[in-house]
Design goal:
The chain is 0% helix and 48% strand. Strands 2, 4, 5, 6, 9, 10 and 11 form a 7-stranded mixed sheet that branches. Strands 1-3-8-7 form a 4-stranded antiparallel sheet, with no helix packed on it. By secondary structure, the protein is mostly beta strands.
């Protein structure tokens, strides 16, 4: 079982940048497909960026493609989300998640219900 703790959220002006971190403990993140999701009040949690267990494959929501970058550091057992050119519509609570299953190491998982473990979330607010 893995525990996930996000950090790095905050208030930033439009056009600015933030880097979210997700520190994992209990098990290596290389055992999991990992992802970042976000949620706004009254709406479902949606995927933002995901990365395969191997770290070799990534996938992004169209709304963030070219602006956000997901990465992982196995030595630090930490997942990151670099967010550039932020827009007010990026404002949300961002969650880190881990999915454990018997799938190919290069598979990326975009469906929230496939994820077994979630962090507590970190608030990102982008002012216009």
């Amino acid at each position: 079982q893995v525990q996930l703790v996000e950090s790095g959220g905050g208030l930033v002006q439009a056009g600015g940048s933030l880097r979210l971190s997700c520190a994992a403990s209990g098990r290596a993140i290389s055992s999991y497909a990992m992802g970042w999701f976000r949620q706004t009040p009254g709406k479902e949690r949606v995927f933002v960026a995901v990365i395969s267990r191997s770290g070799g494959n990534t996938h992004y929501a169209d709304s963030v493609k070219g602006r956000f970058t997901i990465s992982s550091d196995s030595a630090k057992n930490t997942l990151y989300l670099q967010m550039n050119s932020l827009k007010p519509e990026d404002s949300a609570i961002y969650y880190c998640a881990a999915a454990y299953g018997d799938w190919n190491r290069d598979i990326v998982i975009v469906m929230a219900h496939e994820y077994n473990y979630w962090g507590q979330g970190t608030q990102v607010t982008v002012s216009s």
